[in-house]
Structure formats: C-alpha cells, structure tokens
Structures
1.
Amino acid sequence: MTAANAPTPVTPSPSALPAHGEIKDIDALASRLADYLPEEQITRVRGAYAVGEHAHGGQKRRSGEPYIMHPLAVAGILASLHLDAETIIAAILHDTLEDTGLTRVQLEASFGTTVAELVDGVTKLDQVDFASRQEADAESFRKMLLAMARDLRVILIKLADRLHNMRTLGAMEPDARRRIARETLEIYAPIAARLGMNAFKGELQDLGFRTLYPDRYRVIAARIRSVLGNRREAMARIEGELKARLAADGIDARVASRVKSPYSIWSKMRAERKSFTQLMDVYGFRVVTDSVAHAYQALGSVHALYKPVEGRFKDFIAIPKANGYQSLHTVLFGPFGAPIEIQIRTGDMDAVAERGIAAHWLYKNDTGPSNSAHSRAREWISGLADRQAALTSSLEFLENVKIDLFPEDVYLFTPRGDILSLSKNATALDFAYAVHTDVGHHAVAARIDGALAPLRAQLASGQTIEIVTAPSAAPSPHWLDFAVTGKARTAIRHFLKRLQHEDAVEFGHRMLERALDTLGSSLDLIPAEALEQYLQQHSQRRLEELLSDIALGNRLPDQVAAQLVALHGAVVGTAMHRREKIRISGSERGILSFGNCCHPLPGDDIVGFLSPGKGIVVHRTECPNIPELSRNPERRVEIEWDRNVQGDYRAQLRVEVANRPGVLATVAAAIAAAGSNIENVEYSERSPFAATILFTLEVKDRKHLADLIRRVRRTGVVNGVYRYPV
C-alpha cells in the first residue's frame, strides 16, 4: 500500500497542543502570536517576558534549565489556542507572585488589574498554615475555583501549567511524580473533560497513566501500535468507501480514522471488564462536514453504506453534552466482521470538541458555537462557587467537586419539555435539586413518565420527571445515602447543619442550665461581663457557639458552669440542687445518636455519654459497655425519654428457627404485618436442622417491639425470639 492510500489518523493537531520544547525563546513565541495578535500587543508580551525573566533570574527547574523556560512553554501552549494577550502575559508571569519578590501591586501597575487577578488566581496559598498538605492543596484549589468563577481564563492557564509540568515530570522525585500524576488524573484531566477540552484531557490522562503505571502503559501502547499496523489495509478500505459514498451524495466532508489512547483502553478494560482484544476489535472514524444539515445527511449516507447497529445511535447535536460537546454517534456492522464507530460533526463542532471553552477565544466574538461550551462552563463553575459557600471544609468541597466531574450524563425532561443533564446514577432527588433547591427541600416523591416513584429511584436518559412536593417536607439525613450530585448533597448537608446548629444551641442551653442549677445559679444570674470574659478567653464570638459546643460534646457543661460561676465571683461548691434528668424526644438532629451496641428504644431506661464532635450517644442503662464508659463520669449525662416520642428506631431480633424451606418468609411476613420495616437479615448460625437469624428492624418504641415479638412467636415456626443484645 502506498503512503497516499494509508488511512488518515485523527490526532490533536500541532496547533492545538504544541510538543514540549517547541517554544524555546521569546522570538518563537512572538512568531506564533503574530498569526493572530497585533504588533502592539506582542510588544506588551515581550515586556512581560522581560519582567518575568528578571524576576526568575538565577532560578532553575529540577531539570537544570532556567526557570523562565516553564512559563514561556505555558504561554506557548495557550498561544496555540489563540488566547488573548492578557492571558499570554499572565501565563508568562503566573509563578512570579509565588516564587519571586514581585508583588501584586507591581503587577497591577505594569500590566493592569486583569493580568494581576489572573496571576493571583493560579497562585497557591503558601503563606497560610494548614494542618496537612491535603488541606493546603484543597484550599488552594478552592481559591482557584473562585477565581475561575470570575474569569475562566484562570483554569486555562492552570491546565496549560499542569500539562507542561506533566510533560517534564521526569526530573521530579518518584513520590512527587506519583502524587502529581494522581492529582492530574483525579482532578485536572476531569476538569479539562468537563470544560470540553478533549485534547488537553487526553494528553493529561496518558501522561498521568504513564507515570503511575509505566509497565501497563508500555504494554498497551505497544499492542495498540501492533494492532494498527495489522489493520492498515482494512482501515484504508473502509475510509475509502466512506469518502466515496459521501462524495456520491454530494456531501463535502473530511474522513479520518480515530485511534484510542492507552489510558482510554486501560480505563475501559477496568470499567467494562473487557479484554484488550474486545476493545480494539472496533474500527473508529470521524466525519467532519461543513454544516449541520450535511452532518445529518452524512448519517443517512453511512447508514445506507453499512447497516447500523440497533440502539447504538446518539444525537449530541440536538442534545449537547454538559460540556457543550456536539456530534452524532453511530455504530455500523463493518465489512470485516468488526463494528465501525463513527462520529459525525461540523468543523466548528470539531474545534469545540478539541478545545472546549478555549474555542471561545479562538472565534474572538459571540458568533461561534463555542459559546455553548463557554456558557455551560460558566454555569457549572458558578454553581460550584455558590455551593462552596455552604461548605466550611476545603477537603469536603474538593470531594464535592470530584463528584461533579462525572464521566457520563443522563438527559432528562421536565414536564414543560426542558432538558436537564445529571450525572450517571442520579436519582429523582438529584433531579428535584437540579430544578431548584426549594423543590429539593420539599420533595416527597416523583412521577417518572407518569408513574409514581420514590425519591431514591435512579433515572435513565429520555425520562420525563415531575417532582411531588409538600410544604411540610424537609431533608432527612438518610437522603445523603442516595443523593448523587454535588448540588443535592451540598444543599442537604447545609440544611441539616443549620438544623443541627439550632437544635444544638437549644439542647446546649438546657445542659448548661442544668449544670448551673446544681451550683445554685443560672444563665440569667451570670453577669454579661463575666459571660463575655469567658467567651473571649475561649475564642468564641457568641453564646450560641458555646451552647452548640456543649451539645456536640466539645465542652463539658459541668466545667463551663463551674468557670462561669467562678468568674461571677461566687464560690463553687458541691451540688446544691438535685440534678434533674434532661428529656429527649429523639428528634434532636445531629446532636443525638444511639449506640449500636444496645439499640435503645423509647420506653427503655437510658443514659447518655458526651462524645466530642458527635454530641450525646444514648445507651440503655443495662448496656454491657456502661462500666467502660463510666470511667469518665464527667461525660455522663442523665437523660430520659420525653412523653411524646415519634419516629422509627433501630432494633435487633435474634430468632431461632428450624432450618426448613419457607421459614424466613414466614417470619418476615409476621414482622411486616406488625408494621415494621426490615433493614437487614443475616444468619449468625446455621446447621442442617436449626438456624439463628438476626433481623435489623425499625420500630416505634419498646411496646411496638414487644407486640412484634409476640406476633413472631405465634407463627409456630420459631423456637425462640429475643431482643438482641438481651
């Protein structure tokens, strides 16, 4: 076969992702900028280079080359995306605030506020003390995201910075290489994918994969080369037939083969549990047309040429992906017994697919389709910025972002016909929060294609979802068990934390008043000056913070009471009043938990023990762990059940039965008939003749459990029924 007949592979064009080392000096960068920037702006870039070179003077990278080569290379990558002069200048200066004596004021004076903000946006928080490197990295990421919300060019600079660092990772220590590669695969490559920048995503993934798993990368890359070499003739024939058919139908199109990367092969082998041969036994091609109309015509042409595989067609032109990606996907039965995967899109869509939001600057104005990817990226980042305000922990925020960097979407319809895209495995509850936070907070059920369904029901593309709400409904902690999207989880957590704080303040007030009462005092008798002095000594701004800390077990009420009385000038002595028990209703959110060792129920005699951060852990007074817990008597809290207790509580039953068919179903039916929900069932002992089954149940109170036990005993199939632990 001649070279002219060889299939044309689709790979990122040199202008999309320049090779490492291509930009070696400022003249090479200026030459690339001359393709699209006026001379006066190139002069500004040269001025920025002079400032950066002087600021980094004497600094070297681990490879030994002058440090300025790194920001120059980053600027070269961004210049290949045709980004504006301010972004190029910020790229050249992006490490100056972090690694040199240059200040933000100096940057602003020389290059303007925008450049200073871009540089500051990618600068790590090195001047703040953190408990761990993970916390520092998470807070730096949070800072960068807030800067991204103001200007998307911040993330473009960061991605180009990370790409060049990955290309030159060999000079780093092995531990640092693995840490940076893992962070790249977990955060930066998914962000590039979420922003539609597939060329960046692909190279970041392959570089990260090669660093973390060098042997696997080498083996898979070698096998890909081998397979492609053996298929050259078959691929050339398919490409030729596609081109001929499109030309015969009068469609102006470019056809090229698509080559899978080592990382995509490896990740699919793991996710889909397929062998290398199964994944590579596919011919991939891309058809790029000059218009949307021709894209749909090309779909008809290729379906006429080869028979399509049923159920394998997706229209991402009519319904774009969340990152703005648009294309027609179809799978055909090929002439060599292997399927043919074809992507069909316009030239503009192809540019957006490779460059994502960066195509917005390539088109220069608001006329290109790139604005779809750009506006969707702004929506996504704006949503993250809104949600981060509800999270106090940077590590929790980072985990929240990771949840949002989903690999696949489901596309759903509202009753009005609007389209919402959610992450794979999203539930009706996630859909409710995607519509509006208030809708999520008051959701009670959903109608999926008209049929009533619970909030935990998983959704599939194409379904029409209607959320049923009730004014009295409110988020529950168990919603976090099936909420998938970051928006839903953040909103639920924020709501529960607010309720937890309100309950903690009220409960902490009762605990402190009880402790003060035993000393013959009360909060009303403590002078405001003494209370303010105590709060200042313990770095607390308001009384509510102190009361919440008491309820959550972070401060002991007896100690706080004694110190407040002492500050008041009274003598602290022994208890002057009988200590009254604190009544609980069981609904105190976030400050009460129930020991799994004894599963206390309303009606049981109970006692509480303060656990730092968790609040009061409730135990039955006959719990076997009480002697151990009583070694810290200062943490003991005398409590009792209120008269009116509502809700379901967990209990366990130990049921001894004859081991014969149908016994489990009979017992389960009796439990259900008693109005109880079974959470879990397991056999603790089993022989050919007998078995012991442990049921984890939900009951209202001790009386409900007793009624349930009597009903199970009356089935006639059990030898014994006991509350567990006894």
2.
Amino acid sequence: MLSQRSSGLLLHPTSLPSHGGIGDLGPAAYAFVDWLAAAKQTLWQVLPLQPVGAGNSPYSCTSAFAGNVLMISLERLAQRGLVDPKLVAAIPDGGCSVDFESVRVHKLPLLRQAAGKFLQSASGRPRERYDRFCHDNRWWLEDYVLFSALREQYGEQPWNAWPAEIVRRNPDTIAKLYSQLQGRLDKERFLQFAFFEQWSALRSYCAERGIRVIGDVSIFVNYDSADVWTHPQMFRLKADLSPEVVAGVPPDAFSETGQRWGNPLYDWEALRSDGYDWWIKRMRWAVETCDIVRLDHFRGFEAYWEIPADEPTAVHGHWVQGPNDDLFKALRSALGKLPFIAEDLGYITPEVHKLRRDLAIPGMKILQFGFGNRGAHAYLPHRYDPDCVVYTGTHDNDTTVGWWNTGATAEEKQLASAYLGIGDDGVHWAFIRAALASVANLCLVPVQDVLGLGSEARMNVPSDTGDNWSWRLRAEALTPELAMKMATLVEITDRDACVKTPSPRNEQGQGKLGEDFAA
C-alpha cells in the first residue's frame, strides 16, 4: 500500500466550502473527491477527526475515538427527513473561515433536533444499524457520551472540576447519571452514529474512485478528555488526579523556552502490564476508519520530553525513554500489517531513525525545509530514498507562497531558485513539480499550495493561540483547469498506476452519493 507510487492532497474536512459555517461530510466533500479523481490523485490526507476541545485544535481532542459532530452534514440529514431544510438554509455560511463558536450555536441545536426525530421515529434498517453501532462500539461510546453530556452540564469545565464522586467515578453515581441523563445520552449516541455513517459513506465513495484516506493519530491525548477521565491509571497523575508531568518539546532555534503542550504523559509501565490494550484498541479503530495512518510526533515513541506539570515552560524538562518497539510488536501481533507514516520532524536522533527503519515505517520529507544550511539538504529530492513521503509543506507550516513572500531568507530564495528553476506559474508549482518528480513513493500537497495561496490561508502556527484551524476553501476554487494540470503532472511523474476511471456522472454532474444509515 505504501510502496505504490502515488500522490494526493492534504485538506481537513472542516476546511471544505460546505454550507453552515464549517466544512462537513456532505455535498462539498463529495465534490472534492470528484475533483481529486479528475486530477488523478489517489490519496486524501485529513487531520484527526475527533471532537475538539479548547482552542479548536484537532490535535487536542476530548476523545481518541469519537467523531467531531460539527462535521456531520445537516444537508444529508435534511435529505433523509430528519431536519427542516429551511432551518438548515438559514444557518450563517461563515465565509472563508470557521467561526467555531457561531457554528456550535447554530448547528448543534439542529443536530439534536435530528437526533430526537430519529430516535422517536426510526424503524427497520436504520434503527437496526443504529442499534448495532451502539452495541459494537459501547467499549468507547458509553464513556464518551456520558463525558460529553457532563462536560456541557458543568459549563465546559475540565472533568477534575466536577463533583468529587463524578471525578472519582463512583459506581453508584455513574449508574445514576446514566439513568438521569438517558434522553441526552441517546442523542449523543445518535450523533456519533450519524458521524461514522456519513464518514463510512464518504470513504466508500473514495474507494470507488481509487482514493485512499490518510488519517492522523496524535500520540498524546488531551487531559480534559473522556480517555483520561475513564482511564486515569494509564497516565502519570497525582493523587488528586491532576497531571504530575506533561508533554512538550525542548528549547530549539525556533523557541528559547521550547513548547509546553500540557498533555498528560502515559504511564508506559502500566500500559505494558495491560498488554497495551488501550493502544491496540486505538490503532485498530484508526485503521478501521482510515486506510493509512500518520503517527504524529513519532519520536515520542522512542523518547519524549517530560516536563514537571508545575513548570510554566518546557525549559526544565528532560528526555525519558518511550516504549520503543515493544509497543509496535504488540500492535503488529494484534493487528498484522501496520499501514503507518511516521511524522519524524524536529529534533530526531539516530535512535529515532533506527526505530522507524526497524519498523519499516516511512518518514516525512518537507521540501520547504531544504534550503537552509547543508544539514537541511536531507529534505531535498536528491537525498530521498523511495521509502518516504514528500510534502511541499504541512498544516504546521506557512503555505509555500506565504513562506516565499514573508518567511524565506534571501539565501533560501537564491538556493531554491537555483535548485527548482522557478517558472512563470510561481514558486508553488515549482515545489509541486519537484515533489511529484521525486523518488518518494508518496507525495502530498496541501490544497493551499495547489491554489497558490499566501499566509492568509495558513492552517496553524504552532504555539500560537491565535485564530488557528479556521481556514476554509473557497467554493469553485478547485477548477477543471487545475485538475488537468495536476493530472498531467501525475502522468509524467508515473504516479498514475493506481488511478481509476471516475464513475459516470448523473444528470446533475455528480456521482452517486455514498450510502448511509437512512438510505
């Protein structure tokens, strides 16, 4: 799967130009897949799909298993009679950025209306599918729906600020809450069902067109999450259940105080004694919901930066050995072949490289990083081997045009011009051509680079608490002409071996939508 020469685009679903203020799994997602097929792309990379917590980062989620219900398509629910289309049409569209708070205010009530109508009236096959989903996924679903309901009930406060008997999960208290909140929990169950039905339908549509979805798993989880509340024994917590130590990265050339992410660190000994059961479940779920999985912060599996929780910065942290190949042996024993990509950027030691090579997991090459000092040349195509994944940039980088206009030094521009031979169509197409023409088996390009957008389209600035994760694709921006240009490059760079002919169109110019629970 990872050795076949192919290419694709990086775009998170929330960035799609869907109606309602945020990208979702509805018509705009299907139109994007159609464009990928027309452009002869066979990969679509997304960011984590889980529900976001404070800051709206998909890398700081309230569950490692649940789906982000804000991505549920109200239009598809309306087509199935679960919500009034007029109410859906009245939701503010939001323009070219996501206003997460506005989306929550306007969209969540309609999602819950749809949930209530389904629970009251559904029968036959849709009801059977819902019941089966709840039964098959109760191992994560029941904890999550209760966590989500309680988090709302207590004003979005973190779980350690709730009443003590709930924080400590007193069995009698938890049983009583399930009974008292039954109606609310049923709606939460339905929303998870709707998310994964729509996601499964979209993935089926991708598969019919030969497009594989690359998902993303963040190594750490948010402290304010169902996972930590439900499994405190898996984490390095104090007696009062607050974090003892937290995750981050050490000071470097970009930050003199490092990065203090604040995620609780795992108690790897406790996880090892349990046979890594939670990690096996997590990665099994990841490979069931996506075709390929990118492991964020892969170096943390070899060694991670441990920061005392009471330290305000990452300066006084230290390196601690991670689970290394012991975890991956358990994963391979349970799951078989592991279709992983390692995010191996930043401070990477020979030990990290050895772990990745021993596991036969391809690493990442970011073309934008290649034009600094000679040590940066490892990111240039002449230094690649086929067993890697090349990106022009990632969600954490500025766009290629933005980097060129405001971030690149005069020397970097001179070197890039000499190396790439930048033409009249801009630096972004020079980067795209170099990435596609490289020997790397997989090539991924952010949509912003295909469109030649500047810093205004950047998805995330690490360690910045500003308006991250909110960029949205403009409707009709991905034109047939751009698809043809990408398709031609795919052909000449021999990345079209697994390209399928798109299915015939119907009278509306659309392929058949994927089937979901109410079809």
3.
Amino acid sequence: MSVSSKFKSKGLFSMDSSLSILKENPSDRIIALAGNPNVGKSTVFNELTGMNQHTGNWPGKTVSTAQGNHHFDGLNYIIVDLPGTYSLIAHSAEEEVARDFICFGNADGVVVVCDATCIERNLNLVLQTIEITQNVIVCVNLMDEAKRKKITVNINQLEKNLGVPVVSTSARSGKGLKELMQNVSSIHIPKEKLTPITVKYIKPIEDAIEIVEPAILDKLNGKLSSRWVALKLIDSDDTLKKSLSDFLGFDISLDDDVMVAVEKAHVLLKENNIDLENIKDKIVSCLILTAQGVCEEVVTCEHCKINTHDRKLDKILTSKWTGIPIMIVLLCIVFWITITGANYPSQLIASGLFWIQDRLTDFFIWLGTPPWLHGILVLGIYRVLAWVVAVMLPPMAIFFPLFTLLEDFGYLPRVAFNLDHYFKKANACGKQALTMCMGFGCNAAGVVGCRIIDSPRERLIAILTNNFVPCNGRFPTLIAIITMFFAGVVASPFQSFLSTILLTGVILLGIFLTFVISRLLSVTVLKGVPSSFTLELPPYRKPQLGKVIVRSIFDRTLFVLGRAVVVAAPAGMIIWIMANVTIGDLSLLAHCSGFLDPFARLLGLDGVILLAFILGFPANEIVVPIIIMAYMSTGSIIELDNLNLLKTLLLDNGWTWVTAVSTMLFCLIHWPCSTTCITTKKETQSLKWTFLSFLLPTVIGLTVCFIFTSVVRVLGLV
C-alpha cells in the first residue's frame, strides 16, 4: 500500500479509500492506537499529540477517526486513534475499521491500551492483535486508579507472559508516556527473551489451521500472518474478504488450492461437531482461557476493594426501583440549571450584538445606502444571526458541559442500561438512549451520535426518532409559554421550579413518543429484532473539569452553532423580504399567514404561528420573534422586553390556553430544523431517509394537535 508524501493544503490530514495515511516526510512512522472503550486511550492520544490533531471519517463509513503528530527522538510519529473496540472479530463498523487498519494500514506498530483495573478483560483485544502483527506494545493505563483500588500489576510478569513489551502509564498525569515512546521508537528491534505468545486453540481448530496454512503461505508473500489468515478463512469471516482482496490484489478465497484446503478443514470441523454457526464461539472461548492464563501471577488485590464504591452507587443508580426516578430528577436539575443560568448571558450577548447592529446602522446611514439594502443586510441577515447566537449559545454552553460532565463521570452508560429494556421492547437499541440525550442539546449532534449504534436498521430508527426530544433551540419557546400561561399562577421564587417540572413533563412525552415511533418503525419500514451489544459500565471517575469544558465548547457547542449560523443567514434575508414587500395593503408575510390560517385553526394554532414555524425551519430559536413581528407588523424580528408584555400581545391576538398547549405540542413534535436535515442527509447518504425524517414528526405533530384541539372543542373546554 502506497503512502503519500505530503499533507494537503492548510495542513489537513486525510486518507484515501485504501486507508493510506498522508505523511509529512518519508521517515515518519505510523503508530496505531487501539483499545477497549473507557481505558483512557483518548487521554493517551491527547497527551501525546496535544493540539497537533486532525479528525475526520474513515472512507465510506460514518466512523470517526482522530490522527495526530508526536515528535520523539528526532522522528515524527503519526498516531492514529482507532475506534474503541472490544474485539477484532468484527460485528460493527468500528471493529471492522480497527481490524482493517491493523491488518492493512501499513502501521509501523500497534499500541494496545489496557485498563490496569481490569486487565484480563482487555487481553482479548491484545491477543487478537498479536495474532495479526508482532509489532505490538501493551500500554497498561490507569495505574493511578489501580493503586487507589489496591490493585497491583506485575508489569514484568505480564511482559514475559505476552512476549511483547509492556509499559505502565497514568496518562492523565503524563506518567510513563516517555517510556512508552521509547518502546515505540525501538519497536522493530527484537527484544531478548521475548517471544510473542501464540494462542492455542482446541485440537480440531488447530488441525484445521494446519490444513489451510500451507495452501496460503506462498500466496501471501509474507504480507500477513499466514496462521491468522488461515483462521479467518476457516471461520468464513465475510467482513474481511473485500478488505483482504483489496490488500492482496486478488481474492485468495477463490484460489483452487485454498478452496480445497478450506473445504477439507470444514469437513474435519464438522466431524468434531463444529460448524460455521459455533466456530466463532469456540475461538472466543480459547482467547478467554488464554487471557486467564496470561493473568496468572500478574494481578493481585489487597483488601478486596475492587469497585466496592462503584457497586454501591450502581445499586442505586441502576436499580429497578430507583434508576429511572433518579434519572428524571437529574434531568430536571440539568434543565433547571440550563434555564436559570442561560437568562443573564443570553441578555448580555443580545445587548452586545444589538449594540453592534446600531453601529452597523450608523455606518450604513453614513454611507448613504438605500433603505432596502440596510434592511436586508442589517435588519434581516444580521438581526436573525444575532438572535440565533444570543438564544442558542448560552443554553448550549451550559447544557453540553453538564452533559459531558455526566459522560466523564460515567453516568451516561447507566442511562443506556436503565432504558435498554424499554428500547428492546421497541425493537430498538439501548444505545439510542445516549443519542437521545445528545438530542436535548442539539438534534443534529444527536444524529451524529447515532454512529455508535452498530446495526444499520437500529441506527436509522435512532436517526428518524431523534427529533422527538426537543433541542435547546426549542426550549425558549416552550419555557416562555409554560411561564406565561401555566407557571405564572405561583409566586415568583417558585416559577422557575414549576417551569422546570412542566418542561420535564413535556420532554417525557417526547421520550414516550420516541419509544412508540421506534416500535412502529421496527414493525413496518424497518422490520427486525433488536441486536445484542456489549454495554460496559465504566468505573466512576472524577471529571476533569477543564478538559470537559474545552471539549464540550469546541467539539459540540461551536460545531452546532456554526451549522445553525450558516443556514440562518439566508433565512434572515427571506424573512425581511416577506415582511417588507407588500401586495396591496398587506405584506407577503400577512398574505401567507392569512392563507394558512383556516388550516392552522384546525390544529389549535393560527396562521401566524404556523408560518413562524415554517420560517423557523433554519433555526427554531427565531420562531417566537417571528410571531411577535407578524402580530406587531414591525417589518423585522423583535423581542419584547418581558414576558408580561408578550403575554398581553398574545392574548390580544386571540391566544387561549388551548393555543398555548397546541403550540407547545407542535413545538415538541414538528419537522427537524435545516441543520438536522443536512446532518441526516450526510449520515444516511439518502434523500429518502432524510425526507422520512422530516415527514414523520410533521405528520405526527399535525395529528396530535388536531386530536387535542378536536377533543377540547367536543368537550366544550375552549
């Protein structure tokens, strides 16, 4: 496999379809970084590469990758952070990517990161990696946590048992990373008294390997481990065939000699009651037994303090009786902090941005530009952008760090554990709970998060239903209506508390709809049974506050805000034009709202509200300002100074409690914003599924609003 000799412009890392890495210099060395989830692999990567990182997707897959540079002893090392995986027996896109890069990525070495507190579980991946390549270094990370839990790891004995270099590290504090790189720099130098371990399988499988291996030995030309390839041909690993063929330049499984040998091996296995259905189980069993043997005399524990604290917490947080209530309480707390904490910075940002708007207006007046140009650029495009930033940024800057703190603490996998039973009943995947949580911050981020779901069917279900949980862009509308029409009945100090309770109730309705629609999809257009998956409950860890804030702000908040700004700018121009171009005595905005009014009344809304949601397609944050603008006929987006004035305006324009509830329901259940639609198209690579993701909540939202309004009218409650 060829390796390019230069970066693209602007220093961006990229890969071609054959997974080759672009080198800065021919002397650069490529190091793959592998490991189970939650072993601190990303911490090792971040500590080694610092800010010299580049992220992207593997070619043809929605699996993210990170790559970075580390200079050591005069050489540049390109470190490729592989997706976290438990095994190289590929059952998911992540496992496939990790395996293919280790096999065919021309890496100079592989560093497998393990958790010092549970080494035996991590050795499955280590042993499979050694089967593929002997250029392996085992990095036993989290030694500080092991020490805290009174766990001792005999690194020398582990190195002797595995037959490859083993280094202990505490990546968070940087301990051991220099020694790790020293071993990486000498990875091709044979180590005295070190012979890589060979996994011994049960006799029928070993006999089968001996039949196939001679038939492929010459054909591989030393490019790959003949023993490992023979094993993969015997267990008929279909996920490997294409990658293997691309690497070798021909399909080795179709070679006559190989086909005869594989057939003989299958006959031998069948005579020993081993078929293609259970051979993988036999292989995994042998790996587990080998891992147990390796760990003998390696790990000792004093006072048996392993996970006692974690287990006590898990008895509460994952209990059948307390798990869900605690999850709801935490949800309330997160929303209360987001609601109360976002108000002041939102007003501050709005004041600053609108001060800039006034200066822009002065500048346009000084230039003598025509009013229409000032209207489009300043009162249209800039004002909409200002509102989007002022309304979106503060709650996202609060919600995403809180979300990331729970993630860093280790609570989010417990959420998936608690909700797995319900998603299984809906024939969906328990990991959808995590993507649903991300949707609270931004539905586009939730859609991207669906990459963690292995099954394509279940991933589509998660994508199509992510919009049923409200993003932070819909929170201002929901909170304003709740406060004005419902929470306002209590005294001021308790209004934010009641608003949080009611908002949580609305969100629980969205979660309930997620289950219902997931079930509906799984028995219609996306039929299937829920797949099994490995859900590791990682140890609880003290979150690293600084890194959490940086990661959540740059990786999530600014990423989502950037996409919203891109689509909001042209929307601002269109909204201003519609509000200021008149036909007869009415603006285009008034004509459109009048046209929609009869239909909107059937839903408990009016034409202005429905049109505001339509024009708010680029960003949900601008729905309420559009409603105000249309009612007041001001010609540009505005916001009233306080909710009392806004409530008076709404009541004067015919709002009742039915209108308020219908607007909340439609805000919860309507089409996704343009950013989410663009993200869905990118993730699914399909216009059909993107259209369905738009149509599904729209039809359900219209139906729910119509049923609610009809029932209220029949009962005479209007």
